């Protein structure tokens, strides 16, 4: 710290931190900043890193002061890395060809990968999980770019007031940062993904435009904890014991199997997703202050901040939009998992547990092949009083009728078939039940737990190689990356008792049901700040987060409150661009990411005074039917 003290005068450019506003005091009016030269010479490195450390120390040092619910951001010591030459911010040096490779980037030592190896593999996995990178899919030619972006990354753990566990924040600062525009794109990972879970959404748009990009894993992520080995994931992605500074240490940190943060933090992170997004933006401003002292201070008043996310990340940025303080300049939410008041609105947990029970039996009535053992499962549901009918066909029709009555469209059901095939409905329901109810890893209300599974589907020890790769290979919600779900019932039960138990946590009146529903109620969204530009983009065929249950009620609620929210409904678009690598999916569906990028272009131009906000649109796309994607297929709104 002696070098930091010697450079302490650099910190005098910042005024006192205000807890009430949770931001640096106003110094410059928004967008009045003039362009100044920037330096990346080695002579500035000590000053910049010490300045960032001192900012963090100042912020965390305020933690003991009285504060409102929205308190100052609290960050761990930042970690800085450089990415140039054979490496870069956007793809880790992989480029389009490397991202398209079916084989992930390897580790020199499978049991002890380096932080750089983990980062590259995490980028590979998150790009492929979010974007359609297949030849003919159009990425890099019709829309989007994976051109190398050199720069630096700064990462830390952040903690909300009252939270038991931290969340990861990361800022990517391109060498070509546009000091004249002074822009930050802030994003939350989709699903339960790790810190790079929005790289294909926010990074792909913001970095080539000279913006800093800030990310949060919003209290979820791939920082799994091996209860048997007593090991979790450190800041750099490597493994460490429970007494080290880890991204997640469950309580209790003992037992058998695997725990993960989204389900087992006992924080119900979804209730605070908007605050996670704001903390990531605060970390970005502090980072810019420290790394670009000639352009400092960077404040919410003189720096453009655009929030973007898809799926759970889309819901997170809409929650951030509720904040009455004018720190956000615009929001673009794609296929958002958002719960609003209004006609048709349903929680993710409600329709997920419904789909897990009924959708497999309903799909054959839409011409979709039955899963193995379906007749026995539907008959068992009839014996339990869930379905009615004397024949297999009658049971299928009853399941379909029940889903139609609950608001499911045939388009959503067809697209939802892939979630049946991947057992995604059960995976979401099991994990989210723990999260909403704030249950520890050893107290799931329906008896589920997580562990590595052998070929006989019995729990086994996690291998060193599996554990070491969790940060890069995990999705944030098992099964996957060597971790499976353990059903407390025998295989003869067909998994139905557990699914009924999960459903009863929504429909029942017991203590566990009340506990879970209380957690869900805490995630309900309200209208965005008055005057904030908001664009919502959603596929009409979304089968995981149907727009009828999510974005449509949200837009109606916001407009009823007098907010000017724009809404693009994209025909022939479903939830997972990453699944368009499958030929039958690519033939029927269009990617959603091009519309998210276009919406970002439109709001950015609007903020520049170069155009109006986009009008509402129902986009009449044209399915590819096996042809390479072209602009005419997208039919982009004009």
Automatic annotation (TrEMBL):
InterPro entries in the cross-refs: AB_hydrolase_fold, OHBut_olig_hydro_put
GO terms assigned for molecular function: hydroxybutyrate-dimer hydrolase activity
One biological process term in Gene Ontology: butyrate metabolic process
GO annotation, cellular component aspect: extracellular space
Domain of life: Bacteria
Keywords: Hydrolase
Pfam families named among the record's database cross-references: 3HBOH
Gene3D superfamilies from the UniProt entry: alpha/beta hydrolase
The protein's name: Hydrogenase
Organism: Thermomonas fusca
Lineage: Bacteria, Pseudomonadati, Pseudomonadota, Gammaproteobacteria, Lysobacterales
């Amino acid at each position: 710290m002696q070098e930091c003290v010697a450079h302490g005068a650099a910190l005098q450019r910042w005024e006192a931190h205000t807890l009430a506003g949770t931001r640096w005091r106003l110094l410059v009016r928004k967008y009045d900043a003039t362009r100044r030269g920037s330096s990346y010479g080695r002579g500035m490195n000590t000053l910049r890193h010490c300045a960032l450390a001192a900012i963090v120390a100042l912020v965390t040092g305020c933690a003991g002061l009285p504060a409102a619910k929205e308190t100052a951001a609290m960050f761990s010591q930042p970690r800085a890395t450089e990415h140039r030459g054979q490496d870069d911010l956007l793809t880790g040096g992989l480029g389009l060809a490397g991202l398209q490779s079916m084989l992930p980037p390897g580790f020199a030592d499978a049991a002890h990968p380096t932080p750089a190896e983990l980062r590259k593999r995490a980028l590979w996995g998150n790009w492929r999980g979010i974007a359609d990178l297949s030849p003919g899919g159009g990425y890099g030619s019709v829309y989007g770019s994976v051109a190398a972006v050199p720069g630096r990354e700064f990462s830390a753990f952040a903690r909300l007031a009252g939270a038991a566990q931290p969340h990861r924040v990361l800022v990517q600062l391109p060498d070509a940062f546009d000091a004249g525009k002074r822009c930050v794109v802030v994003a939350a990972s989709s699903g339960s993904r790790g810190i790079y879970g929005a790289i294909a959404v926010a990074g792909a748009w913001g970095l080539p435009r000279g913006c800093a990009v800030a990310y949060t894993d919003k209290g979820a992520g791939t920082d799994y904890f091996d209860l048997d080995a007593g090991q979790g994931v450190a800041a750099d992605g490597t493994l460490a014991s429970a007494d080290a500074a880890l991204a997640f240490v469950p309580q209790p940190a003992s037992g058998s199997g695997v725990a993960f943060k989204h389900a087992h933090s006992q924080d119900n992170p979804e209730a605070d997703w908007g605050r996670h997004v704001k903390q990531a933006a605060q970390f970005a401003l502090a980072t810019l202050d420290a790394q670009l002292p000639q352009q400092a201070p960077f404040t919410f008043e003189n720096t453009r901040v655009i929030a973007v996310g898809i799926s759970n990340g889309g819901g997170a940025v809409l929650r951030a939009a509720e904040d009455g303080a004018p720190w956000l300049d615009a929001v673009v939410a794609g296929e958002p998992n958002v719960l609003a008041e209004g006609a048709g609105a349903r929680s993710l947990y409600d329709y997920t547990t419904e789909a897990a029970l009924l959708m497999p039996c309903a799909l054959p009535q839409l011409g979709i092949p039955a899963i193995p053992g379906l007749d026995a499962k539907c008959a068992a549901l009839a014996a339990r009083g869930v379905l009615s009918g004397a024949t297999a066909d009658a049971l299928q029709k009853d399941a379909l009728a029940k889903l139609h009555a609950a608001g499911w469209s045939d388009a959503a059901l067809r697209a939802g078939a892939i979630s049946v095939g991947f057992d995604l409905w059960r995976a979401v329901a099991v994990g989210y039940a723990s999260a909403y109810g704030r249950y520890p890893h050893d107290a799931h209300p329906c008896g589920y737990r997580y562990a590595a599974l052998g070929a006989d589907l019995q729990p086994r020890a996690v291998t060193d190689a599996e554990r070491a790769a969790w940060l890069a290979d995990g999705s944030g919600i098992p099964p996957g990356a060597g971790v499976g779900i353990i059903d407390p019932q025998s295989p003869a039960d067909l998994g139905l008792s557990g699914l009924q138990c999960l459903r009863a946590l929504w429909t029942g009146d017991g203590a566990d049901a009340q506990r879970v529903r209380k957690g869900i109620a805490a995630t309900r969204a309200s209208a965005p700040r008055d005057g904030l530009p908001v664009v919502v983009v959603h596929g009409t065929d979304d089968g995981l987060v149907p727009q009828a249950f999510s974005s449509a009620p949200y837009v109606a609620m916001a407009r009823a409150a007098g907010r000017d929210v724009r809404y693009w409904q994209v025909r022939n678009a479903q939830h997972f661009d990453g699944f368009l690598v499958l030929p039958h999916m690519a033939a029927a569906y269009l990617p959603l990411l091009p519309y998210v990028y276009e919406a970002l272009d439109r709001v950015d131009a609007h903020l520049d005074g170069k155009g109006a906000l986009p009008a509402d649109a129902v986009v009449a796309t044209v399915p590819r039917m096996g042809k390479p994607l072209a602009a005419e297929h997208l039919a982009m709104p004009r």
